[in-house]
Amino acid sequence: MIITDDIKQRIADLAQKYGFDLVVLFGSQATGRTHKESDVDVAYYSDIKLDFNQEVLINTDLTVIFKNDQVSLVNIKRASPLLAREVVVKGVVLYAKDSSLFSQLYARTLRMYEEARPLFELRRHYLDYKIEQYRHA
């Protein structure tokens, strides 16, 4: 996806309207590995808790901005370490209230991911074990 100045301005307006400190495009639209059915993944960082109606309004606004009715909205603060890592490593910043916020989030997210990595590995080993059991059953 090509991020135009118009898109950035509209995202900045949306961020200010809803109190977002940071907005990041991630997933296939950010990496350029899109296909006909690709959705638009957008992460935001905010201290404000959104209610359901606000999320619907934001999704509607994002649908108009990106001209795609398949929009997924994620609060980075509530995302799993694995998803948050995906956002900061492969994402494209569309709006940042403070230029240092993304760098701070990047460092904190990678630290959280590293702390959780042993659990991911344990889960992977357990799944490998279960798959082997299933194959020999």
From TrEMBL:
InterPro entries: NT_sf, Polbeta, TA_antitoxin_MntA
Gene3D superfamilies: Beta Polymerase, domain 2 (3.30.460.10)
All residue ranges annotated as the Polymerase beta nucleotidyltransferase domain in the record: 10-99
SUPFAM superfamilies: Nucleotidyltransferase (SSF81301)
Entry-linked NCBIfam families: MntA_antitoxin
Protein name: Polymerase beta nucleotidyltransferase domain-containing protein
Native source organism of the sequence: Candidatus Taylorbacteria bacterium RIFCSPLOWO2_12_FULL_43_20
The organism's taxonomic lineage, starting at the top: Bacteria, Candidatus Tayloriibacteriota
